[in-house]
Amino acid sequence: MTSVKGFKAAAVAAGIRKAGRLDVGVIFSETPAVAAGVFTTNAVKAAPVLLDMERIKSGNGRAIVVNSGCANACTGEVGMRDAVATAAKAAEVLGVSETEVYIASTGVIGQPLPMDRLSAGIEKAATALMADGLDSVANAIMTTDTFCKTATATCIIGGKEVAIYGMAKGAGMIHPNMATMLSFIVTDAAITAPMLDNALKESVRKTFNRVTVDGDTSTNDTVLLLASGAAGNPPIAGPGSDFDTFSASLHQICLDLARLIAKDGEGATKLVEVRVTGAVDEADAEKAAFAVAHSPLVKTALFAEDANWGRILCAVGYSGARVEQEKMKLFFDTAQMVEKGMGLGPEAEAAVSIIMKQKEFTITVELGLGNASASVWTCDFSFDYVKINAEYRT
What is the pLDDT of residues 310-326, one digit of tens each? Predict the structure, then answer.
Protein backbone atom coordinates (compact mmCIF):
# COMPACT_ATOMS: atom_id res chain seq x y z
CA MET A 1 0.00 0.00 0.00
CA THR A 2 1.56 3.26 -1.13
CA SER A 3 -1.46 5.56 -0.92
CA VAL A 4 -4.22 6.47 1.52
CA LYS A 5 -7.53 8.05 0.48
CA GLY A 6 -7.52 11.81 0.78
CA PHE A 7 -3.73 12.29 0.68
CA LYS A 8 -1.14 13.25 -1.89
CA ALA A 9 2.59 13.53 -1.39
CA ALA A 10 5.87 14.21 -3.17
CA ALA A 11 9.57 14.65 -2.45
CA VAL A 12 12.26 16.46 -4.40
CA ALA A 13 15.99 17.09 -4.37
CA ALA A 14 16.41 20.72 -3.35
CA GLY A 15 20.16 20.72 -2.77
CA ILE A 16 19.99 20.93 1.02
CA ARG A 17 21.80 17.60 1.27
CA LYS A 18 24.05 16.03 -1.34
CA ALA A 19 23.30 16.80 -4.97
CA GLY A 20 20.51 14.66 -6.35
CA ARG A 21 19.43 13.37 -2.92
CA LEU A 22 15.74 13.72 -2.02
CA ASP A 23 15.61 16.18 0.89
CA VAL A 24 12.28 18.05 0.85
CA GLY A 25 8.93 16.31 1.19
CA VAL A 26 5.32 17.45 1.32
CA ILE A 27 2.31 15.45 2.54
CA PHE A 28 -1.02 17.08 1.70
CA SER A 29 -4.58 16.30 2.77
CA GLU A 30 -7.05 17.22 0.04
CA THR A 31 -9.67 18.08 2.66
CA PRO A 32 -9.38 19.37 6.25
CA ALA A 33 -7.91 16.58 8.37
CA VAL A 34 -7.84 15.78 12.06
CA ALA A 35 -4.32 16.00 13.53
CA ALA A 36 -2.42 14.66 16.53
CA GLY A 37 1.23 14.83 17.49
CA VAL A 38 3.84 13.78 20.03
CA PHE A 39 7.13 15.60 20.42
CA THR A 40 10.54 15.40 22.09
CA THR A 41 10.76 15.98 25.84
CA ASN A 42 14.26 17.42 25.47
CA ALA A 43 14.32 20.90 27.01
CA VAL A 44 16.34 22.03 23.96
CA LYS A 45 13.74 21.95 21.18
CA ALA A 46 14.17 22.77 17.51
CA ALA A 47 12.13 25.59 16.00
CA PRO A 48 9.86 23.22 14.01
CA VAL A 49 8.96 21.37 17.20
CA LEU A 50 8.05 24.56 19.02
CA LEU A 51 5.87 25.69 16.12
CA ASP A 52 4.12 22.31 15.76
CA MET A 53 3.49 21.99 19.49
CA GLU A 54 1.50 25.21 19.40
CA ARG A 55 -0.43 24.39 16.22
CA ILE A 56 -1.33 20.82 17.19
CA LYS A 57 -3.58 22.24 19.90
CA SER A 58 -6.15 23.00 17.19
CA GLY A 59 -6.52 19.29 16.42
CA ASN A 60 -6.59 19.86 12.67
CA GLY A 61 -4.21 20.25 9.75
CA ARG A 62 -3.78 20.03 6.00
CA ALA A 63 -0.07 19.52 5.31
CA ILE A 64 3.30 18.37 6.60
CA VAL A 65 6.52 19.81 5.15
CA VAL A 66 9.81 18.13 6.03
CA ASN A 67 13.44 18.67 5.11
CA SER A 68 16.54 16.63 5.82
CA GLY A 69 20.12 17.90 5.95
CA CYS A 70 19.51 20.70 8.45
CA ALA A 71 17.79 20.37 11.84
CA ASN A 72 17.03 24.08 12.34
CA ALA A 73 17.80 23.53 16.03
CA CYS A 74 19.67 25.93 18.31
CA THR A 75 19.24 28.65 15.69
CA GLY A 76 17.51 31.26 17.86
CA GLU A 77 15.12 33.87 16.49
CA VAL A 78 16.35 33.30 12.95
CA GLY A 79 15.44 29.63 13.19
CA MET A 80 11.92 30.36 14.42
CA ARG A 81 11.44 32.98 11.72
CA ASP A 82 12.57 30.44 9.11
CA ALA A 83 10.20 27.81 10.52
CA VAL A 84 7.25 30.19 10.23
CA ALA A 85 8.35 31.19 6.73
CA THR A 86 8.58 27.53 5.69
CA ALA A 87 4.99 26.90 6.73
CA ALA A 88 3.85 30.14 5.11
CA LYS A 89 5.47 29.18 1.81
CA ALA A 90 3.77 25.77 1.87
CA ALA A 91 0.43 27.35 2.72
CA GLU A 92 0.78 29.77 -0.19
CA VAL A 93 1.51 27.13 -2.82
CA LEU A 94 -1.02 24.64 -1.45
CA GLY A 95 -3.80 27.15 -0.98
CA VAL A 96 -4.45 26.46 2.70
CA SER A 97 -4.24 28.35 5.97
CA GLU A 98 -0.73 28.81 7.36
CA THR A 99 -1.86 27.44 10.72
CA GLU A 100 -2.84 24.15 9.05
CA VAL A 101 0.77 23.42 8.01
CA TYR A 102 3.15 21.41 10.20
CA ILE A 103 6.89 21.33 9.59
CA ALA A 104 9.76 19.06 10.56
CA SER A 105 13.51 19.13 10.03
CA THR A 106 16.32 16.66 10.57
CA GLY A 107 20.07 16.91 10.15
CA VAL A 108 22.95 18.83 11.68
CA ILE A 109 22.17 21.01 14.72
CA GLY A 110 23.17 24.68 14.82
CA GLN A 111 23.02 25.54 11.14
CA PRO A 112 20.45 27.91 9.58
CA LEU A 113 18.09 26.61 6.92
CA PRO A 114 19.04 27.47 3.32
CA MET A 115 15.69 29.16 2.79
CA ASP A 116 16.13 29.87 -0.91
CA ARG A 117 16.67 26.18 -1.69
CA LEU A 118 14.00 25.05 0.77
CA SER A 119 11.39 27.43 -0.67
CA ALA A 120 12.17 26.31 -4.20
CA GLY A 121 11.92 22.70 -3.08
CA ILE A 122 8.50 23.26 -1.51
CA GLU A 123 7.21 24.82 -4.73
CA LYS A 124 8.57 21.94 -6.80
CA ALA A 125 7.13 19.30 -4.47
CA ALA A 126 3.73 20.99 -4.40
CA THR A 127 3.46 20.75 -8.19
CA ALA A 128 4.48 17.06 -8.15
CA LEU A 129 1.95 15.82 -5.55
CA MET A 130 0.49 12.40 -6.34
CA ALA A 131 -1.59 9.79 -4.57
CA ASP A 132 1.24 7.25 -4.40
CA GLY A 133 3.95 9.71 -3.38
CA LEU A 134 4.27 8.75 0.29
CA ASP A 135 7.22 6.42 -0.29
CA SER A 136 9.22 9.26 -1.84
CA VAL A 137 8.81 11.31 1.34
CA ALA A 138 9.92 8.31 3.38
CA ASN A 139 13.13 8.30 1.35
CA ALA A 140 13.61 12.05 1.67
CA ILE A 141 13.67 12.03 5.48
CA MET A 142 16.58 9.59 5.81
CA THR A 143 19.90 10.85 7.19
CA THR A 144 22.21 8.13 8.54
CA ASP A 145 19.44 5.57 7.95
CA THR A 146 20.55 2.68 5.75
CA PHE A 147 17.07 1.79 4.54
CA CYS A 148 13.63 3.35 4.12
CA LYS A 149 11.23 2.64 6.99
CA THR A 150 7.51 2.28 6.21
CA ALA A 151 4.60 0.24 7.55
CA THR A 152 0.99 -0.22 6.49
CA ALA A 153 -2.18 -1.71 7.93
CA THR A 154 -5.88 -1.98 7.15
CA CYS A 155 -8.87 -2.69 9.37
CA ILE A 156 -12.65 -2.74 9.07
CA ILE A 157 -14.58 -0.07 10.97
CA GLY A 158 -18.32 0.30 10.55
CA GLY A 159 -18.22 -1.89 7.46
CA LYS A 160 -15.62 0.33 5.77
CA GLU A 161 -11.99 -0.52 5.09
CA VAL A 162 -9.68 1.91 6.86
CA ALA A 163 -6.06 2.28 5.76
CA ILE A 164 -3.07 3.50 7.77
CA TYR A 165 0.38 4.29 6.33
CA GLY A 166 3.39 5.21 8.47
CA MET A 167 6.94 6.27 7.74
CA ALA A 168 9.85 6.96 10.06
CA LYS A 169 13.49 7.90 10.08
CA GLY A 170 16.01 7.27 12.82
CA ALA A 171 19.21 5.32 13.35
CA GLY A 172 21.24 7.20 15.97
CA MET A 173 20.66 9.50 18.95
CA ILE A 174 17.78 7.15 19.76
CA HIS A 175 16.30 7.12 23.23
CA PRO A 176 12.75 7.24 24.64
CA ASN A 177 10.70 10.40 25.06
CA MET A 178 11.50 10.41 22.12
CA ALA A 179 14.54 9.74 19.94
CA THR A 180 16.23 11.30 16.90
CA MET A 181 13.32 10.23 14.88
CA LEU A 182 10.63 11.65 12.69
CA SER A 183 7.47 9.72 11.95
CA PHE A 184 4.53 10.75 9.83
CA ILE A 185 1.38 8.64 9.79
CA VAL A 186 -1.70 9.16 7.65
CA THR A 187 -5.05 7.40 7.76
CA ASP A 188 -8.38 7.75 5.99
CA ALA A 189 -10.28 6.94 9.19
CA ALA A 190 -13.00 9.29 10.37
CA ILE A 191 -12.17 10.04 14.01
CA THR A 192 -12.40 13.00 16.38
CA ALA A 193 -9.30 14.90 17.44
CA PRO A 194 -9.44 13.81 21.12
CA MET A 195 -9.73 10.13 20.20
CA LEU A 196 -6.95 10.40 17.61
CA ASP A 197 -4.76 12.05 20.23
CA ASN A 198 -5.53 9.30 22.76
CA ALA A 199 -4.75 6.54 20.27
CA LEU A 200 -1.46 8.09 19.18
CA LYS A 201 -0.13 8.83 22.65
CA GLU A 202 -0.87 5.32 23.90
CA SER A 203 0.74 3.76 20.83
CA VAL A 204 3.84 5.94 21.16
CA ARG A 205 4.16 5.08 24.85
CA LYS A 206 4.55 1.37 24.14
CA THR A 207 6.49 1.55 20.87
CA PHE A 208 8.59 4.59 19.97
CA ASN A 209 9.17 5.30 23.65
CA ARG A 210 10.55 1.79 24.15
CA VAL A 211 13.33 1.99 21.60
CA THR A 212 16.90 2.78 22.53
CA VAL A 213 20.05 2.76 20.43
CA ASP A 214 22.47 4.94 22.37
CA GLY A 215 20.64 6.75 25.18
CA ASP A 216 20.57 10.20 23.52
CA THR A 217 17.33 12.13 23.13
CA SER A 218 17.20 14.61 20.25
CA THR A 219 15.97 18.16 19.77
CA ASN A 220 13.71 17.44 16.79
CA ASP A 221 11.74 14.27 17.56
CA THR A 222 8.26 14.46 16.11
CA VAL A 223 5.40 12.06 15.39
CA LEU A 224 2.52 13.55 13.42
CA LEU A 225 -0.72 11.76 12.55
CA LEU A 226 -3.30 13.09 10.08
CA ALA A 227 -6.74 11.52 9.54
CA SER A 228 -8.62 12.52 6.38
CA GLY A 229 -11.91 10.77 7.13
CA ALA A 230 -12.15 9.70 3.47
CA ALA A 231 -12.79 6.03 4.36
CA GLY A 232 -16.40 6.97 5.12
CA ASN A 233 -16.68 5.02 8.37
CA PRO A 234 -18.96 6.32 11.14
CA PRO A 235 -16.73 8.81 12.99
CA ILE A 236 -14.98 7.33 16.01
CA ALA A 237 -16.05 9.72 18.76
CA GLY A 238 -15.49 7.72 21.94
CA PRO A 239 -14.31 4.46 23.48
CA GLY A 240 -15.66 1.22 22.05
CA SER A 241 -14.95 -1.56 19.62
CA ASP A 242 -14.31 0.78 16.67
CA PHE A 243 -11.76 2.75 18.66
CA ASP A 244 -10.12 -0.46 19.88
CA THR A 245 -9.87 -1.76 16.32
CA PHE A 246 -8.32 1.46 15.05
CA SER A 247 -5.95 1.68 18.02
CA ALA A 248 -4.74 -1.89 17.51
CA SER A 249 -3.85 -1.17 13.87
CA LEU A 250 -2.15 2.12 14.78
CA HIS A 251 -0.19 0.35 17.52
CA GLN A 252 1.03 -2.22 15.01
CA ILE A 253 2.19 0.52 12.64
CA CYS A 254 4.13 2.25 15.41
CA LEU A 255 5.59 -1.04 16.65
CA ASP A 256 6.75 -2.04 13.18
CA LEU A 257 8.42 1.35 12.69
CA ALA A 258 10.00 1.29 16.16
CA ARG A 259 11.51 -2.14 15.48
CA LEU A 260 12.89 -0.91 12.16
CA ILE A 261 14.55 2.04 13.92
CA ALA A 262 16.24 -0.28 16.40
CA LYS A 263 17.22 -2.69 13.62
CA ASP A 264 18.84 0.19 11.73
CA GLY A 265 20.74 1.53 14.73
CA GLU A 266 23.95 3.13 13.52
CA GLY A 267 26.42 0.32 12.90
CA ALA A 268 24.02 -2.26 14.35
CA THR A 269 24.33 -5.95 13.53
CA LYS A 270 21.62 -7.22 15.93
CA LEU A 271 18.01 -6.35 16.70
CA VAL A 272 17.26 -7.42 20.27
CA GLU A 273 14.04 -7.37 22.23
CA VAL A 274 14.67 -7.10 25.97
CA ARG A 275 11.62 -8.46 27.74
CA VAL A 276 11.12 -8.37 31.50
CA THR A 277 8.35 -10.50 33.01
CA GLY A 278 7.19 -11.23 36.53
CA ALA A 279 7.67 -7.65 37.72
CA VAL A 280 5.65 -6.10 40.54
CA ASP A 281 4.28 -3.48 38.12
CA GLU A 282 4.82 -2.21 34.59
CA ALA A 283 7.01 0.66 35.76
CA ASP A 284 9.45 -1.78 37.34
CA ALA A 285 9.42 -3.95 34.24
CA GLU A 286 10.29 -0.92 32.12
CA LYS A 287 13.09 0.15 34.46
CA ALA A 288 14.71 -3.27 34.33
CA ALA A 289 14.31 -3.66 30.57
CA PHE A 290 15.74 -0.22 29.84
CA ALA A 291 18.71 -0.79 32.15
CA VAL A 292 19.67 -3.87 30.14
CA ALA A 293 18.96 -2.24 26.77
CA HIS A 294 20.94 0.92 27.65
CA SER A 295 24.00 -0.82 29.08
CA PRO A 296 27.11 -0.29 26.91
CA LEU A 297 28.59 -3.44 28.45
CA VAL A 298 25.57 -5.50 27.42
CA LYS A 299 25.45 -3.92 23.97
CA THR A 300 29.13 -4.54 23.26
CA ALA A 301 28.73 -8.15 24.42
CA LEU A 302 25.83 -8.50 21.97
CA PHE A 303 28.11 -7.31 19.16
CA ALA A 304 30.81 -9.79 20.18
CA GLU A 305 28.20 -12.57 20.49
CA ASP A 306 29.51 -13.14 24.01
CA ALA A 307 27.01 -14.80 26.36
CA ASN A 308 28.11 -12.62 29.30
CA TRP A 309 24.97 -13.06 31.38
CA GLY A 310 26.46 -11.39 34.44
CA ARG A 311 26.26 -8.01 32.72
CA ILE A 312 22.52 -8.47 32.22
CA LEU A 313 21.80 -9.38 35.83
CA CYS A 314 24.03 -6.52 36.96
CA ALA A 315 22.01 -4.03 34.89
CA VAL A 316 18.72 -5.33 36.27
CA GLY A 317 20.16 -5.03 39.77
CA TYR A 318 20.99 -1.34 39.46
CA SER A 319 17.84 -0.47 37.49
CA GLY A 320 15.84 0.55 40.56
CA ALA A 321 13.29 -2.19 39.95
CA ARG A 322 12.37 -4.47 42.83
CA VAL A 323 14.51 -7.59 42.52
CA GLU A 324 15.08 -10.73 44.55
CA GLN A 325 18.19 -12.32 43.11
CA GLU A 326 17.28 -15.90 44.02
CA LYS A 327 14.04 -15.65 41.97
CA MET A 328 15.61 -14.40 38.73
CA LYS A 329 15.69 -16.40 35.50
CA LEU A 330 17.29 -15.47 32.18
CA PHE A 331 16.53 -16.74 28.68
CA PHE A 332 17.87 -16.04 25.20
CA ASP A 333 14.87 -16.94 23.04
CA THR A 334 13.89 -20.29 24.60
CA ALA A 335 17.36 -21.23 25.86
CA GLN A 336 17.61 -20.77 29.63
CA MET A 337 20.88 -19.42 30.98
CA VAL A 338 20.11 -18.46 34.60
CA GLU A 339 18.00 -20.14 37.28
CA LYS A 340 17.53 -18.75 40.79
CA GLY A 341 20.01 -15.97 40.01
CA MET A 342 22.82 -18.36 39.07
CA GLY A 343 24.26 -19.46 35.74
CA LEU A 344 23.43 -22.93 34.42
CA GLY A 345 26.95 -23.72 33.24
CA PRO A 346 28.96 -24.21 30.04
CA GLU A 347 26.32 -26.20 28.15
CA ALA A 348 23.71 -23.48 28.62
CA GLU A 349 26.24 -20.83 27.63
CA ALA A 350 27.11 -22.76 24.47
CA ALA A 351 23.44 -22.96 23.48
CA VAL A 352 22.98 -19.24 24.02
CA SER A 353 26.13 -18.44 22.03
CA ILE A 354 24.52 -20.08 18.99
CA ILE A 355 21.38 -17.95 19.41
CA MET A 356 23.48 -14.79 19.67
CA LYS A 357 24.76 -15.35 16.14
CA GLN A 358 21.25 -14.63 14.85
CA LYS A 359 20.38 -11.19 13.52
CA GLU A 360 17.33 -11.02 15.81
CA PHE A 361 16.56 -12.60 19.17
CA THR A 362 14.88 -11.93 22.51
CA ILE A 363 16.44 -11.64 25.96
CA THR A 364 13.87 -12.45 28.65
CA VAL A 365 14.47 -11.70 32.32
CA GLU A 366 11.94 -13.28 34.66
CA LEU A 367 11.82 -11.55 38.06
CA GLY A 368 9.31 -13.89 39.68
CA LEU A 369 7.69 -11.17 41.79
CA GLY A 370 4.40 -10.36 40.03
CA ASN A 371 2.45 -10.38 36.79
CA ALA A 372 3.66 -7.23 35.01
CA SER A 373 5.86 -7.18 31.93
CA ALA A 374 7.41 -4.78 29.42
CA SER A 375 9.50 -4.98 26.27
CA VAL A 376 12.20 -2.64 24.95
CA TRP A 377 13.88 -2.85 21.56
CA THR A 378 17.59 -2.17 21.16
CA CYS A 379 20.64 -3.11 19.12
CA ASP A 380 24.31 -3.82 19.66
CA PHE A 381 27.23 -1.37 19.73
CA SER A 382 29.68 -2.05 16.93
CA PHE A 383 32.92 -0.46 15.72
CA ASP A 384 30.89 1.26 13.01
CA TYR A 385 28.75 3.13 15.56
CA VAL A 386 31.84 5.04 16.71
CA LYS A 387 33.01 5.64 13.15
CA ILE A 388 29.63 6.90 11.91
CA ASN A 389 29.21 9.36 14.76
CA ALA A 390 32.83 10.47 14.82
CA GLU A 391 32.54 11.44 11.16
CA TYR A 392 28.93 12.72 11.20
CA ARG A 393 29.74 16.34 10.34
CA THR A 394 32.62 15.52 7.99
Answer: 999 999 999 999 999 99
Active site residues: 180
Q: What confidence category does residue 266 fall into, taking pLDDT thresholds of 50, 70 and 90? A: low
Q: What is the pLDDT of residue 384?
A: 73
Which domains are seen in the chain, by residue range?
7-263 (3.60.70.12), 271-390 (3.10.20.340)
Mean pLDDT of 340-363: 96
Q: Is residue 178's pLDDT more than 90?
A: no
What is the per-residue pLDDT for 84? 98
Burial class (CB in 10 A: 0-12, 13-18, 19+), 46: buried
Q: pTM for the whole thing?
A: 0.85
Which 3-state string (H, E, C) describes the chain?
CCCCCCEEEEEECCCCCCCCCCCEEEEEEEEEEEEEEEECCCCCCCHHHHHHHHHHHHCEEEEEEEEEEECCCCCHHHHHHHHHHHHHHHHHHHCCCHHHEEEEEEEECCCCCCHHHHHHHHHHHHHCCECCCHHHHHHHCCCCCCCCEEEEEEEEECCEEEEEEEEEECCCCCCCCCCCCEEEEEECCCECHHHHHHHHHHHHHCCHHHECCCCCCCCCCEEEEEECCCCCCCCECCCCHHHHHHHHHHHHHHHHHHHHHHHCCCCCCCEEEEEEEEECCHHHHHHHHHHHHHCHHHHHHHHHCCCCHHHHHHHHHHCCCCCCHHHCEEEECCEEEEECCEECCHHHHHHHHHHCCCCEEEEEEECCCCCEEEEEEEECCCHHHHHHHHCCCC
